[in-house]
Amino acid sequence: MKKPSNAFVMASWLALGAGMTGFLIGLWNSNMQLNEKGYYFTILMYGLFAAVSVQKCVRDRLEGIPVTDIYYGISWVSMLLTIVLLTIGLFNATLLPSEKGFYAFAFLLSVFGAITVQKNTRDAQASKSAEPGKTEF
């Protein structure tokens, strides 16, 4: 297993940071009520967790690490649910179309960043344990 390149690691962290920062700054500066801001913040956090969980489940199964069907299913349902909830929220929001698009793409960039950061972290860890003379505790 090769360690991911520094450029890919940095691009992944940049995507995660840019997506989250943009989404959160947009929420902070919006004229939404506090409960609406909380809804979108929760969707973002839940979406990031679900994305990492899906990535881990898929990777575990590919590597022969046991993952229960229920956890695998819940991870996928959670990821899809965050997308559906964000879509419904934005569809019903009294925002300009450009603002709705901004939140949608910031969310998707954040999810992509979370998945790639998780992948890079796991690849780097696997490359360390594959090096001769290295033991993992």
Notes on the protein architecture:
- The structure is a single chain.
- The protein has 137 residues and is mainly alpha-helical.
- The chain has one domain (20-122).
- The chain is built from 4 helices and no strands.
- Helix 1 packs antiparallel against helix 2 (34-62), helix 1 (6-29) packs antiparallel against helix 4 (97-130) and helix 2 (34-62) runs parallel beside helix 4 (97-130).
- The chain is flat.
- The relative contact order is 0.20.
- The model has no long low-confidence stretch (mean pLDDT 92).
- Keywords: Membrane, Transmembrane, Transmembrane helix.
- The chain crosses the membrane at residues 7-27, 39-58, 70-95, 101-118.
- Pfam families: YiaAB.
List keywords for this structure.
137 residues, mainly alpha, 4 helices, 81% helix, Putative membrane protein YiaA, YiaAB, transmembrane helix, YiaA-like
